[in-house]
Every structure is written in C-alpha cells, then in structure tokens.
Amino acid sequence: MTLIHDCSVESELLAGMRLARRAIGSGELVVIPTDTVYGVAADAFSPAAVQRLLDAKGRERTSPPPVLVPGIPTLDALAVEVPDAVRRLVAEFWPGGLTVILRAQPSLQWDLGETRGTVALRMPDQRIALELLSETGPLAVSSANLSGMPSATTAEGAADMLGDRVAVYLDGGPAGTGYDAIGERPGDTSSTIVDATGVDADGAGVLRIVRAGVISRERIAEVVGEELLQPAGGTSDGDAASDGDAPVGADAPEAGAPAGDAPEAGAPADDAPVAASAGDREGSTAERTDPAAS
C-alpha cells in the first residue's frame, strides 16, 4: 500500500521529509509538490536513480529530466558559463516559473540521459520542494505521471499512476500553489523555458524561448532587452518539440528539462548545444518541455 505523507500535519511533514532524504540518498524516487505540477525526483548525481526515474515514467534516455536547484549560486556549479543575461533573468524570476537551458559542466559526475551537453535548470517557488533541495542538493525532477498521461496535480493522482515505483510521496496540497516572502499564493501553471546556449560569455548571440509559459516574452525582454531575443515567431535549428508528456493546461512540460516536467516538479524541456546540428538539437530539446521543470 502506497503511503502518502500529508505535509500540512507537522508530524507527517517531519517524518515525510526524513524518509524523503533517506530515499534520495539510497537512489530511490520521491514525489514532491512544486509550484507547477507534482514531480518525481531522483538524485541528479546518481545515474542509476535517474534511470529509475525514466523507467518509472516509461520514458527513454532521449527525454532527459530537468534539474531543480535550491538557489542561484548552484548555477555556477552546474553550468560551464552563465551569461550576464541569464543572471539578470534568474535574479528577477527565481524562485519561480523560469527554466533556463545552459551548457553543463563536463566534469560533473552525472548522467541525465542524452542531453548533448546541456542541462535545464529551475528553482521552484514551493516551500516543501525548496526545503528538500536545500538538504539533498540538485534533483532530477520530471512530472509525476506515466509518459503520455496528464501530469499529476495532487499526490494521490501521482500515486495512482506511479504506485510503488516511488518510495515516498509528499502531499503539499494541490499543485500550483507557490510561496513568496509574504506567504501562500496561487502558483504558476507552467514555466517559461529559455535556451541560453546560444549566448556566449560576452553576451553575443540570442536567447531562444523554447516554450511560452507564465513569464511572458515581454517581461523577459524588459529584463534582457529585445535585441537579445530571437525574433518573435522566428525559428532556428533545434526548435523544441513537445515530447507529449505535458498535460493540456498544466506544464506543457517536458522540455529541456528539461521537459514535463518540460513539467516541472515544478514542473517541469530541451537541450540544444550551441554547436549541435539541427537534428541533434531537436533530439535534446524535446524533453525540455517537461512540466516538472516548469
């Protein structure tokens, strides 16, 4: 029988978080609430755990999960370089509904799947998710659903689909409830995914919006300038394709995930390395639309 920990009850929250930390450390899976959809999480630095996540959802390695991080400083540890434009974006929109795709540090001991050297990162705006991330470090998180099914917006919905494939379920109430400095507030429905692999350290190149979400193109342009954005409606090699794992009206998640998560648990996407061919970019970007990354 699947046990779901009701995190609105202090004793269950403490027990659930303790078991979740233990499960992550043992390479098992945990379902967590995010500000977008429920996500299924695994230790990002354990290849076996990440493969377990993909197997639980019925996904291939061509759909790598996004990575949720506990804070902005983690960017420099996980990415080769962080363009100034990205620093401005995360300063404005993190924690929250922004997923950024960057070139991953080649020295990292992880295997998220066929990412082609990129990683999709997001800092979720959800108290329980952030608390767990602060204790475990970066987590590979994809929407908590079977591939091809709608992303779960409740812990019960996730358990109905994933069952005993997941060791611990943390119930934080209906997904889409984030937290800000003032308190609880309605959350985002899907993250906006921005591919920053086309911008170098000197700021040359363009940012590409892989998936439209809760942060509008206009808001992004206000922060980085219209001249740095790929023209609206424009196309380029490697435009992200939906992996079909994102529920309508939730996170078109799965992208560069990160994708589905392309929700992010958080829901939710895609990778597109700068030097990749058009075909390569399509392959890596497909997952980046996961709702959990969102």
Automatic annotation (TrEMBL):
What is its subcellular localisation?
Cytoplasm
Q: Where is there biased composition of kind Low complexity?
A: 231-278
Q: What name does UniProt use for this protein?
A: L-threonylcarbamoyladenylate synthase
Q: Name the reaction it catalyses.
A: L-threonine + hydrogencarbonate + ATP = L-threonylcarbamoyladenylate + diphosphate + H2O
Q: Which EC number applies?
A: 2.7.7.87
Coiled-coil regions listed: none
What family is reported?
A: Belongs to the SUA5 family.
Ranges for domain YrdC-like come to 14-215
Which SUPFAM superfamilies does this UniProt record tie to the protein? YrdC/RibB
Using the UniProt annotation, give all residue ranges assigned to the region (Disordered).
228-294
Q: Which Pfam families match?
A: Sua5_yciO_yrdC (PF01300)
Keywords (A to Z) from UniProt: ATP-binding, Cytoplasm, Nucleotide-binding, Nucleotidyltransferase, Transferase, tRNA processing
Q: Where is the composition biased (Basic and acidic residues)?
A: 279-294
